[in-house]
Amino acid sequence: MSTLRHALFLALQVLRASPGRSMVLVLGLTVATFLPVITWLAGEQVEQRLMSRARSSPVLLGHKGNEFDLVMNALYFRGQVRDPIPMRARDEVAAQGYGAAVPLYVAYTAAGAPLVGTSLAYFEQRGLELTDGRMPAILGEAVAGASVARDFALEPGDKLRTDLTNLYNLAGSYPLVLQITGVLAPSDTPDDDALFTDVKTTWVLDGSIHGHTEVTKDDALNPEAEEGENLEATAAVFIVSEIDDSNLASFHLHGDQGDGALSSVLVFPADARAHDQLLGDYALNEQYQAVLPERVVGTILGIVLRVREGLELYFGLVAGSTVAFFGLVIVLSLRLRRAELRLMQRLGCSRATIAANLASEILILVLAALGLTALLTWGSMTWLGSLL
Predict the structure, then answer these.
(1) Which end of the chain is more exposed for a tag (fewer CB within 10 A), N or C?
(2) What is the DSSP letter of 337?
(3) Residue 186 near residue 192 (C-beta atoms within 8 A)
(4) What are the pLDDT digits (tens) for 44-99?
(5) Which phi and psi angles does 170 have, rounded to 5°?
(6) In b/e form, how buried is each residue of 91-113, taking b as 16+ CB within 10 angstroms?
(7) 284-328 pLDDT, tens per residue?
(8) Rounded to two decimals, what is the model's pTM?
(9) Which helix (H) or strand (E) holds 210?
C-alpha cells in the first residue's frame, strides 16, 4: 500500500510539473469519451421519451394529409395542423362506442406556451392531477402545466393573456385574458409545458364564439340618436377580451357546435377489438385518417437512429485517433525522460517501481478525464431533460 501511495504521489508531482501537457492529455481523453457517450445516452433518452408518449396515445384521428404534422401537434403541441376537422367527427367516434374520444385543438399560445383546447376526459386518460386549484368550468378558464406555472409563477386566481396571432383578423384571434383556476402536478411529459382549457374557449379565439358589450351613446357611431332610435357601432370595437360574470351570458356560438374546429381527436379504444375496428372503419375514409402515433414516431426515430449510428461511427474514429495520440504522447514523453528514468535507476529504484510510477501517471490522467466526462455528461443530460 505504501508503494502505491508513493507512486501516486510521485506521479502527481510529475504531472504538476508539466501542466500544459497534462491538460492536453486530459482534454483529449475527455473529448474521446464524452462524444460517443453523450450521443448514445441522448439518443436513448429522446427515444424513450418520444416512444413513451406515443405508446400512451393509441389512435389519433385527423384530416387526411401529413400524419407527422398531426402527431407532432397532438402529442407534443408542436407545429400547426393545416386542415382542422369538425367537432362532429369526434361525436361520431364517441357515438360508435370505440372508446373515449378526446377533442384536441392546438392552434394558439399564451405567453409562448401552447394553449390546448380539450375536455376533462383528457386529464383522466393522461392521468393528470392538480396540485392546486380546480379544473376549468366555464369559458375563459384554464389550468397551467407544472413547468409553465413555475416559469411564470402562476397560481389559481392569476390571469394570463393569449398571444395575438393575426393583427388584421377582425373576425377572431383577439387576445383573450385567461383565468388560471389550477396548476397540474409534474408529469415529465409535454403536458408540463402547456396550458389547458375547454375546447370552446379556443373557439372564442377563433371568433366562432364571442360576446359583445352593450353599446352606449358614448361609444356609438351616432351619439346624436334620439330616444328609441337604435345605436350603431362596429362589432369589432365591442368584442369582449375578458370573460367574467358580467358578460358570460352574452357569449354565443355562431353556427352549429358540430362545425367547431378541432386539430384532431385522440381516441382511447375500449379494447383490442374496438381498436382494430376503428382502424378498419377509417382505412378507406376519403376525408379522415386514423393513425397510430407509435408507428409514426417509430418512423421518425428510424431516421434519427440512422443518423445516430453515423455519428457513433464518426465519434468512434475520433476516440480511436485520440487514444493513438495519447499513446504517442506517452511514448515521446518516455524518450524525453530517459535521463530522469536512468537517474531513478541509479538511486536504487527497480524496474517495477519505475513502471508503477508511469502507470500511476496514466491512471491519474484517465481518472481525471473520466471525472470530467461524467460531469459534462451529467450537465448535458440535465439540460436535455429540461428541453424534452
Answers:
(1) N
(2) T
(3) yes
(4) 777 788 888 888 899 999 998 888 999 999 999 998 898 899 999 999 999 988 99
(5) -80, -10
(6) ebbbeeebbbbbbbbbbbbbbeb
(7) 888 999 999 988 888 877 776 666 666 667 777 777 777 777 777
(8) 0.73
(9) strand 209-210
Instruction: Copy the grid coordinates of residue 243.
Output: 370573460
Which pLDDT score is estimated for 236?
46
- Cell matching residue 385: 431533460
124, 125, 127, 133: CA torsion to nearest 10 = -30
Residue 274: what residue type? A
Give the contacts of 109 (CB within 8 A, at least 6 positions apart).
115, 162, 163
Distances (CA, A) of 284 to 6, 264, 266, 280: 79, 18, 19, 8
**CA–CA gap between residue 370 and residue 376 (Å, rounded):** 10
The H-assigned helical ranges of the chain are 2-17, 19-55, 67-76, 87-96, 120-126, 146-152, 199-206, 272-283, 293-336, 338-346, 351-387
Which residue in the block uniquely carries the three cell numbers 357611431? Answer: 221
- Grid cell listed for 173: 384571434
